[in-house]
Every structure is written in structure tokens, then in C-alpha cells.
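User: I want to check something. If I give you two sequences, will you return the structure for each one separately, not as a complex?

Assistant: Yes, each is folded on its own. Here is the first sequence with its structure:
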Amino acid sequence: MADSKTAGADTMSLVLIRHGESEWNKLNLFTGWTDVDLTDTGRREAADGGRALADQGFDFDVCHTSMLKRAIHTLDIVLDQMDRSWLPVHKAWQLNERHYGALQGLNKADAAREHGEDQVLIWRRSFDVRPPALDPGDPRDPHVQEQFRDVPADVLPYTECLDDTIAHAWPYFQSHIRPELEAGRRVLVAAHGNSLRALVMKFDRLTPDEILKVNIPTGVPLAYTFDRDWNVIDKRYIGDPDTIAAKIDAVANQGKAK
């Protein structure tokens, strides 16, 4: 089983990690581009992920993350646990979470009770149906937020579906991350449930219906090894299988009425 310690010239090593539990994950709120931080649990998850990678002998040459602090801080903690805080890190809005539009800040269970679990599932996970859009100038609108001041206004969203997220995450992978992997560099990406699902869909050649059923747990590294033709020759979560299974179930149940 190949990992970044044993991968050679004929393989490429990539690890994805979803940020640890955020303040709004804990409250079961639609988060999207809202820039909330990690909870104490989320920091522990990130630390556990970093230790698991170190224990398994992983190492990296370059890192990528989003422009949202929950992913940035997760990466910081992982690298600290691996004694790799000196690694270069590239921050890109293209790796941001899917923008949930006017749903941002709403409780998922409350939304399920009001609109039905099926509708919430469509809003959360459909491939090409966008939630209600923000009004321009809304405080949640990235056009009026300082951290996106250098991003061209015409690419900033008012709402997104998964297909929209793929439309910015995958080109970023192709233009920035793929060349690094093909040059033999070992890459770590810390991002979000939907931006990572965008990549997983492409790597695993999943259909829109299949990606709907994929749940990525918080704070658990997902290691890929590819051959030179971009076939997946190994894919595995790094950590305790029972803990990982419980986290996957928790993600799947977020949009259900209680």
C-alpha cells in the first residue's frame, strides 16, 4: 500500500483533509463562505489528523487551502503536529466551501422541519440546484467582504450548487496542484466538504447521483495515490475506522429534522 513515504517516480501522492468541526458545524448551521473558526473539538480533530499522518510516515512538499479560517487553521494545526510549519502554503478562494446563498446562518434541522428533509437534501447535496441567492450588498455577500477584495467581482457568487463549486475547484486543481504532483511533489490540501467532494468526484469518476451519497468527515486525512495516468491505485482514510464511520454518519444526518 503506497503512501507519501514509499511513493516513487511512478506514483503521485495527494492528501485531502476537511477542516475540523467549526463553530457553525456544532450549531448545525449552513455555513458556506461565512468565515467561522474551529471549535475546541475541531482543533483536536485537526491535531489528531496531523498526528495520524506523522505516525503513518507521511510528508509533504507543498500545501493548499481556502481563504476561510476554519480550513487555514486546520492546516496550521496539522503542520504543527507534523513539525512542518515551514512548508509553503497557497491560499485560494477556489477551494472555498460551496456558497449556500440565503441559507447561510440557518439551522439545517429547522430548515428541514419547515421545508421538508427532501428539499433540504436538494439544497445541501443536489448537483445543479442552487439555494435562494443573497441580495447584493447583504452582509454575507462576498462582494462586500474585505478578504475577497482582490478577487474579480464577476466570479464571486451569490449562491452556488455543487456544479458551480466544481467549476472553480477543479480548474484550480488542474492549473496549480496537478503540475506539482506530476513534478513529484507531495501535496496536502485542507479545504471543505463540498470543495473536496468536487475533487473526489473527478478523481473517482463519479456520476452526479453517486457524489450525492459521498460524505467527507471532519478532520480525517484522505490519502490518494495515483499512477502516472491518473488512475487511483490507493485511496484510504487515515485513522480509526470506527471513529471515521461515526463521523461520516454525523455528516449525513445534518440535514434531518430532529
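And separately, the second sequence with its own structure:
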Amino acid sequence: MTSSPHRAGRPARRPFTRRPVLLGLGCLALLASAACGSGVTEPEEPEGTGASATSVSNCGKDVTIPEPPQAIVGLSPSQTELLLRLGLADRVVGQAQTNTAPLPEELRAEAEAIPVLSEDGPPAREALLNVEPDFVFAPTAYEFTAEQGFASEEQLRDAGAAVYIAAGGCPERRMTGTVDDLFTDLTALGAALGAEETAAELATEAQASLDDVTNRIEGREALTVAQVYLEGETLSAIGAGLEYDIIRRAGGDNVFSPDDSEFSEFFAAQINPEAIAERDPQALVFTVHDEEHEQATRSYLERTFPDLAAVREDRLIAISTSDVFPGTLGNVAAVEQVARGLYPDAF
């Protein structure tokens, strides 16, 4: 599929509140890491320095950070947001893909002084290397595709930058990623960036929100859901990966699954409207990148599926594509938003 579920945006409603800087809980234990993502090892003393190094396992590789990075780049608005939530604005030297999603309003002033390296896609190799980063945080491995003119992981390491890919965006995990991968990222980033206390509190808040959703929908019969993305008149469905898990955590029963042949190799697939009609889901969840896209998608769904249960019962649920990127607090917001749309009387 060419476009996509990876394009980003942000609707106005944000049920999960993200506080700018969270302080005071100190020694809270971080939540368990997910498999195939990242882990943190005990600090070690690197040769020739008095600083303690931190090593994290990321996408099957060990990443060693000799000392807390001072020149950090977020390669998408979702990653930039998480860096700002960790209280690191003064150490972020670049943000990227800024046109794909607006930052939350309360963070925009903090981001104004951060250089913009790209607007509609990952930054060109030279643009990223020119800011001399020592730590680069990306949602997926795609942002390091040398064939597209982006800086590769090897080129960045050669330039002295540690590379961290969101756990759910690792190539080996993109089809099986879950919302819990966010906690893996918070554990690793907190340790690597010297922000353990804030990362712990963000994790605690996120877990509390997920637990609240679970408690509110407990015992309810799961409604059937199809998650789709529309570009022009091209309709795609989601049947695996992080997006699939968001529906599950929100109490929905996705009518597409990783067991379907369409999703055996990639989490999204272009489909015919008939495939949706045959399954007659009780709800349609769709990802959007701005209000115009939301309205266009709603109009398409209502026009194309007038007899669908989801349309007849007005159960069309829009979520931001930026909230389904790996490695973002938006994953939690998406779970709550979908659950509210499916079971409004529970909230």
C-alpha cells in the first residue's frame, strides 16, 4: 500500500491528557518491556571517561550511549512530542515531518525554537547530519532508508549518533507490535536520555488510563470493528500490528486479523468495499490526518456503506494517524477514544 496509515494528523479530541512535565514520583518502577523491542542493561564504565554508559537493546541490536545525549532529533511529530513530554526541549536540535501532524497546542511554544529538518517526509541525509545529532529517535526503520536519500543507521553511527527506533516499529515487530511497546520505549528512553523519573511518571499515567478503559468495558460483549484508511477513493484495511492491538485493547473485535492472507506480510492492505460489506462490522474506525480528511472519509463511508450496521447506528470513529505511530503516548489516547466510540455509556 502506498500511502498511508503512516501519514499523520490529529483530531481535536484528546481523551488521554498528556501533561507537559511530570514531576515528583521519583522511584516508580517502570512497566515491563515487550519482547523484540528494547531492554536496558546496568550502567557500565566506558574506557577513557568518567561517565557511566547506558546500553539498550533495540531492534535486535545493542545501542550504547556513553553519556546523556545533548543533541537529540525526533524524526516525526509523535517522537518530538514524547521527547518534549520527557522535559528535553533544551536538548532537541531537530524535528522532522512537521506537516504530517500538529503538536499538541500546549507543546507548540516549546517546539518553536527547534529547527525543522523536513516537513512532509523524513529529512534528507545532509539535513539530518548537519545538525550533528548524538541521538536520533524514529517511529520506524523506514526513516533510515538510504535508497530514499535518508541517513542510514550506519551513517548516523559513524557520525557519532545513537539510533533508537520505537519498539513497535522495529522491522521484526511491525506485524506484532502492541500498545505495551510504548512502555518498552519509555523504559529505554528514560535510561538513555537521563529522564528516568519523568519517563516513570508518564508510564504510570498511561497505564492508569489503559486500566481505566479495561475496567469500564469489562463484561461487555465485544462489538465487531473494521479499521480502515481512505486516500482519495482507495480504501485500505488494517489487520495486524499496533493498530490491531489498539482495537483489541478498546474492546473491539476486529473483523480482519493477522490470520487473513491479505495481512500475512503487511499490517495494512488495499481492499474492495465488498470485503467490508460482507463482514458488516458494527463500528468503523478510521484514521485521519486533518479535519478535511475526516469529513471526506465520513462522507465516503456513509455514501458507500449506507446499509452497514456501523453507518446505520452512526458508529463511525475517527482517530489520528499520528496516534497509531509506534512509540507515542497517542497509542493510549487512541485506545480510549475508540473505547468511548464503541461504548459511550461506559464513560
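Because they were folded independently, the notes below concern the second chain alone. Residues 38-209 form a domain with the Rossmann fold fold (CATH 3.40.50.1980). The two ends are 36 Å apart (CA to CA).
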